[in-house]
Amino acid sequence: MKSKYPVIEKLEQAVIVSSQASDNEPLNKPEHLCALALSGLNGGARGLRLEGAENIKYIRKQTDVPIIGLIKSEKVEDKDRLSSVYITASFAEAKAVSDAGADIIAIDATPRKRPDGLTLIELIERIHKELNKPVWADVSTLQEGLAAAEAGADVVSTTLYGYTEETKRKSDEPPDFELLGELCKKLSQPVVLEGRVWYPHELSRGFELGAYAVVVGSAITRPQLITRRFVKAVPERAR
Predict the structure, then answer these.
(1) Range 6-233 classified under CATH 1.10.1060.10
(2) CA atoms within 13 A on the CB side of 110
């Protein structure tokens, strides 16, 4: 699939590792996240999804693979994320991500209000014109994906499925393969499966449905969540 941006072509049929951590996690330091990211690359991943300008800048010095960068707003508390834009919510955040060394800018592409008042179209246009970077649109529904593509997004990803009021799901529910399939059928832009991918067979299914690439995060880079899955599997009688 040809793109205006060669960096996107590098990610065709790629496994992309999302190396991120929340504030209260022991791994939330640039050097720790870098070690996780590089371990993923050693395992065969061909791209990274990274959060925070400091982390992106640190890891950029260690590798030249494509980096999808974002900032999660500290102003939006976890309890409000279902209803608020928190992934690269403004142009200022997009510029910070770009300046740190990200090759692709990931943004929340839902129709929710953005703090700087820009519409989705305006934000994408500014990223293209002022930063000369491609836009990775995180969506939760088919309608949002179609709108993001129409607005000029270069990549559409299922990242936010399950994480908005409209699509709210339990964290252990699988990806929405129906959403992925419909997006792949209707869009000419690359469509990425991202979010809730815990098993290799889910990744395989994503590619079978037409995914351009697949992002895997928690299943690789979040030890506390991986551990929790095992702890939950302990039979009641053994607890």
Answers:
(1) no
(2) 26
